Amino acid sequence: MMFRQHPRLTVFTVVYLAIVAWMTLGPQPLDDHGDAFMRMVAWRISLWEPLNWFDFPHLEFISNILMFVPGGMFLILLLGRRYWWFAVQVCVLATVGIETVQMFLPQRVPDLRDVIANTIGGMIGVTVAMIVTYPAARVRKASVVSAPQTADTVVEPVRSTALRSE
């Protein structure tokens, strides 16, 4: 099972999911001080001439994208490259689920822009993980294809031990 093959990655993924759940379903994290800080960051960015259009909603949208990038990456690393399509679906379903639950939370407001941003983030994470894992997958595929197979010998694919614990 994938969780036994990658115990550290599994722990990182669970911690990541707990943080995302707390940030998206917990009490609104932006109080007066946090909101003021985020607005100041957006204002500072907008001072640079090419980005004078940048404001708080843009910063929030980008933050939502960035929040789901690790999720897409973790899913590819846990499930494998073959299931990239499933990883994208999980990201979409997760964000739709979060926004649906937010409808019933008095301190939260669901927003279609969050679904879009989180989905983009998950897809970026899946894409990055697919690119990063491509060389290892290519080597693994080449080693399986080049090994001679007969009726009494079966060659198992080489598995990376980089993420396994000792």
TrEMBL record:
Keyword set, alphabetical order: Membrane, Transmembrane, Transmembrane helix
Residue ranges constituting the VanZ-like domain according to the UniProt record: 14-132
Annotated signal sequence range: none
Transmembrane segments: 7-25, 61-79, 84-104, 116-137
Domain of life where this protein originates: Bacteria
Name of protein: VanZ like protein
